[in-house]
Amino acid sequence: MVERMAIPEFIKALRSKIGTDLLQVPTVAVLVYDDYGQLLLVQDKESGLWGAPSGILDPYELPADAAVRETWEEAGVFVELTHIVGVFAGEHFGGVYPNGDQLACVSTVFGASPVRGTPHPDHEETSDARYFAPSKIDSLSCYPYFRVILKTLSQGQSQGYFERSTWQPSGE
Question: In whole angstroms, what is the distance from residue 169 CA to residue 172 CA?
Fold first, then answer.
């Protein structure tokens, strides 16, 4: 199951032409840690699953702007981005929506610090938003993509993460 994201108008326009065929989109996710080392998570209103604030980039939008905007819209927290955690894609970063739409995501994940705002859900996409101690996150029902990101972080990546290339030229 893919994370339910609000469908931007440009995606609706594409879907009117391509139907439910696979569409690859750029997305962002934001790992916001407070002064106590707790991580900000949002709960998807439809599925009840937890994950980082995230969403699809609008056309010509900078990934950094999308990251700050999505965190504000979904959790009511204005953030300062601090670093790129990594760039993620693959089987856990996509899927099929209940209506049949197929989506594959390439997600830039940012680290961030809160500037202002108390976490609260938007009640459109999110039903809850709050900080969790890292030890409490394992007991939550989370999106598979979010588990992949957390697993990568637990491996002590000191630089931005990306999956190593497996591509080889043919015929050589």
Answer: 7
Q: Which residue has the tokens 């969790």?
A: 132
CB proximity list for 33: less than 8 A, separation 6 or greater: 39, 40, 111, 112, 113
* 85: number of Cβ within 10 Å: 23
CA distance 28 to 108: 5
In this structure, the number of other CB atoms found within 10 A of the CB of residue 171 comes to: 4
Place of tokens 């899927």: 95
Tell which CATH architecture fits domain 20-154.
Alpha-Beta Complex (3.90)
Cα(119)–Cα(41) distance, integer angstroms: 9
What would the pLDDT profile of 7-36 be if each residue is shown by its tens digit? 888 888 988 999 989 999 999 999 999 999
Strands (E), 8-119: 23-32, 39-44, 50-51, 54-56, 78-88, 94-96, 102-116
For residue 78, what are the β-bridge partners? Answer: 116
Give the pair of three-digit tokens for residue 14: 């594409």
Task: Please write the tens of the pLDDT for every residue from 135-162.
Answer: 999 999 999 999 999 998 887 766 787 7
